[in-house]
Amino acid sequence: MSLCFSGGSAPRLFGCADKTPVQVLHEYGIRTGSAPQYALIGSDGDAHQPCFSFSVTIGEITCKGEGSTKKAAKHEAAQAALQVLKLDFQPNDDRDKNGISPETRDASNPVGILQELAMLRGWCLPEYVTCMETGPDHMKEFTVVCRLEGLEETGTGSSKKTSRRVAAERMLEKLQSLSGSLEITWVRHTRMTPDESTRETTRFSTLLTSNQIL
């Protein structure tokens, strides 16, 4: 693996197709003198369907990731950091014009889609809060609120992970509705400079096709 810096642009990594996001981020940290620091934020869900949350901090960047195992959550956090750093972790993949990878675009990962969209737009990351838990132990039902840039949507499911997924799907649908099309063009008209406003009005390509949100 080697790092290539050109014209002050973000570094690009080569020969990393066989490495995990954690490995790539670690090697980048060694190269730049800023080792990534991981922290377990918490865990939700039932014993048979856990959901772990990890954060990773490298330099001034902090990203979060979720997964059914601690390892998977760390990889998600590392992948998010690589995207923020604009490192070409998958140089041969089929990313769309927004930089969103096929894995993230998968309809089963609306939480990942929403997080990546927020990072690409420079928004605060989506916040998920469990606001209600009902039912007996063997039939729990959770309600989670997703907050993003002043917007709110709720999701309900048999686990917190499922509820977050539903809330994220609904948030994406709301953003599409506010945009008036499948292309998400909505911008929050607060605390924005004229230059930021101009950049934000640049249209994004379609994140989801009509059959991607079920």
Automatic annotation (TrEMBL):
The lineage of its organism: Eukaryota, Metazoa, Chordata, Craniata, Vertebrata. One of its GO terms (biological process) is regulation of regulatory ncRNA processing. CDD domains: DSRM_PRKRA-like_rpt1 (cd19862), DSRM_PRKRA-like_rpt2 (cd19863). Pfam families: dsrm (PF00035). It comes from Triplophysa rosa (Cave loach). Its main location: cytoplasm. This is Interferon-inducible double-stranded RNA-dependent protein kinase activator A-like protein. Belongs to the PRKRA family. Gene3D superfamilies: 3.30.160.20. Keywords: Cytoplasm, Kinase, Repeat, RNA-binding, RNA-mediated gene silencing, Transferase. PANTHER family: INTERFERON-INDUCIBLE DOUBLE-STRANDED RNA-DEPENDENT PROTEIN KINASE ACTIVATOR A, LOQUACIOUS, ISOFORM B.
